[in-house]
Structure formats: C-alpha cells, structure tokens
Write a structure and sequence with these properties.
By secondary structure, this protein is α/β, with parallel strands linked by helices. It has one domain: Divalent-metal-dependent TIM barrel enzymes (TIM Barrel, Alpha-Beta Barrel), CATH 3.20.20.150. About 40% of the residues lie in helices and about 15% in strands. The chain has 12 helices and 10 strands. The protein has an 8-stranded parallel beta barrel with strand order 1-2-5-6-7-8-9-10, surrounded by 6 helices. It has a two-stranded antiparallel sheet with strand order 3-4. The radius of gyration is 19 Å and the shape is globular. The two termini are about 30 Å apart.
C-alpha cells in the first residue's frame, strides 16, 4: 500500500520543537503515514555542521510517531556555487548525516543552479558559456558521487526545478530530460529523481513540453514525489505574495491536489505501477488545515488507477485543533 504524507513546512515550524510536535500530532489525526522533515526548519545544520544536540532532540521526538520519514535539504544548497563551494558541500554532507540519524531513506536535494534566485536582481540574466556549464555539471556530479558513496543507505532525490520569467534557464533541472542526463552522468544507484508535480506543470507550460511524455522518459528514475497543484503559469522572481497570484492562476502555488489543473491521473499512470516511494503533499503553510483534503484527493486519484493508499477516518482531537 502506498504511503501518503506531507511536509513539515519550515516556515511554519521555524526552529520550534514544540511546533514540530504540534504538526506531527495533527498529521497523525489527518491519517497520514509519512512526513518530510526540513533540515533548515529545525536548525539542525549550522554553518555547514550538524548540530548533534538538536538532532538528538529531533530524533527522540520523531520516534514518538509511527511515520515513514524523508528529509528535505536546505533550499539554498547549491553544489554549483562558485564562491563558497566547500561550505555547500559541507551542508550537503551534514544534511545527509541528519537524514541517517533520524532513519530517513530519502533526502530531497534541489539540483545545482547556474544562477541562484538570491542573485536574480543583482546579476540580471544568465550568461554562461557551454564549457562553463559543463564544468559546473561535472563538479556537481563529482560531489554527489562522493556523497552517494558516503551514505549508501540514503537515496539522494534530485528535484526537477520550476522556471522563472526572465531568468530561465537558471537551472538545468527545469527540463526533466536534462535532469535525467545529470542523474545518468552521476551514475549511482542511490541518486535518483524527486518528481515535483507543480514544477513539472510550470516547466511544461513555459517550455511547451508534454508532461506525460516527460514523466514517461524519467519514470525508471523516480524514487520520491512532491504532489501539489497549480495552474502552470510562471512568475517573475519578485512575485511572492500568494494572495496576489492565485486569482490569476499564477505561480508555484503548492496547493492541495484538485485545486489546480494538473492532470494527476495521466501523469501517475506512467510510473505508479512500479513505484514504491513516498508521496508527499508538499503544501504551503497557508494550506495546512487542508492537508487531510489534499491527502484524500490524492488517495482518490490513486484508487481510480487501481492503487491503494490508506487515509484514516476523520477523528477531530484537541491536538489537531491546536493550529
């Protein structure tokens, strides 16, 4: 039976173990069977080093719950960084160490960016020669090969990226085919793909791709999934306010399944038959109270395809109401 979970939103928790317990308790009431833990939401890595005391505290708390766990590495981690490359490597390794400590079998990693979002407004549009791009791809591959060897029990799941108006292609992983090529370049059994449905929808619209064809091509490499909804319309990096974007169907909304127009059934049909990873409803904090609905809608999609995913019946408790 497939395991459906959700993300512990790093902004919502913001370093608080009390908030972590609150959200995990709510997940239990929602009937979820998995949770994705953000390293950066719990201050478990500080300046490239694992905080062992904090990690021990988190580990003890997670042990109180019957979830399967995955981990999300810090979003700004960039193995193509050209200024502090050693620090970024350290953050990667510390994040993997955290994953191993809490017993997670998958860690999500945002692939290298030629130009990071934080510098969009400073550096303007991207201008890199092909040989420089190849050098950066080789450097990222080398570090991930090292990491995969050091942590053979953890799958490093490289996530397909969303596009941005004006600055794309800032990242090769905006196109699933190029992400596949990089995973094949790395050539390690525990380096695979995290399929982000929302990012796929946006890239498909932006680049004129067929999302079903794209998933069919990467299907054997998919080891993890972020399942959320949107309407596929890219935005400028300065557009951050969700309440301004949603009326126009814009942005990487991270809404519950069924709230946008992603063709989930058609996409899942390409790989779900052989899939044995987690299905994480990666929602923005503003949709937390709709987490059960998101999981239930996803379970319905899977049921239509002939695959079971258990969602418990609604049992409203005091813990779940402490939002």
């Amino acid at each position: 039976m497939l395991s459906i979970g959700s993300n512990i939103n790093e902004v919502r928790v913001d370093g608080s173990l009390r908030a972590l317990r609150r959200d995990l308790s709510a997940f239990l009431d929602f009937g979820l069977t998995a949770a994705e833990i953000s390293v950066h939401g719990l201050d478990a890595v500080k300046n490239g080093r694992l905080d062992r005391k904090r990690t021990s505290e988190v580990k003890a708390m997670l042990a109180d719950f019957p979830f399967s766990y995955s981990v999300h590495a810090p979003n700004p981690l960039n193995l193509m960084d050209r200024v502090n490359s050693a620090l970024h490597r350290d953050v990667l390794m510390a994040s993997l160490e955290f994953s191993a400590e809490i017993g997670a079998e998958v860690m999500v990693y945002h692939p290298g960016r030629y130009l990071v979002e934080e510098e969009f407004g400073v550096r303007g549009t991207l201008s890199l020669e092909p040989d420089e791009q190849e050098r950066l791809l080789d450097e990222e591959a080398r570090i991930l090969q090292e990491a995969a060897g050091a942590f053979p029990g953890i799958v490093i799941a490289m996530e397909n990226a969303r596009p941005y108006l004006h600055h794309s292609p800032y990242c090769y992983a905006e196109r699933p085919s190029e992400l596949k090529a990089q995973v094949e370049r790395i050539d390690r059994k525990n380096v695979r793909i995290n399929l982000d449905f929302g990012h796929l929808r946006m890239s498909s619209r932006f680049y004129g791709l067929d999302p079903v064809d794209e998933v069919r091509a990467i299907a054997p490499l998919i080891a993890h999934c972020h399942v959320h909804d949107n309407f596929g319309n890219p935005v400028y990096h300065t557009e951050k306010t969700q309440t301004h974007q949603i009326p126009f169907g814009k942005g990487d909304s991270h809404m519950p399944v069924g709230w946008g127009d992603i063709p989930f059934s058609r996409i899942f049909a390409e790989f779900i038959g052989s899939y044995n990873g987690l299905l994480i409803c990666e929602l923005r904090s503003r949709y937390f109270e709709h987490t059960r609905e998101a999981a239930g809608n996803l379970a319905d999609v899977l049921k239509e395809l002939g695959h079971a995913a258990q969602i418990a019946e609604l049992t409203v408790s005091q813990k779940a109401c402490e939002w």
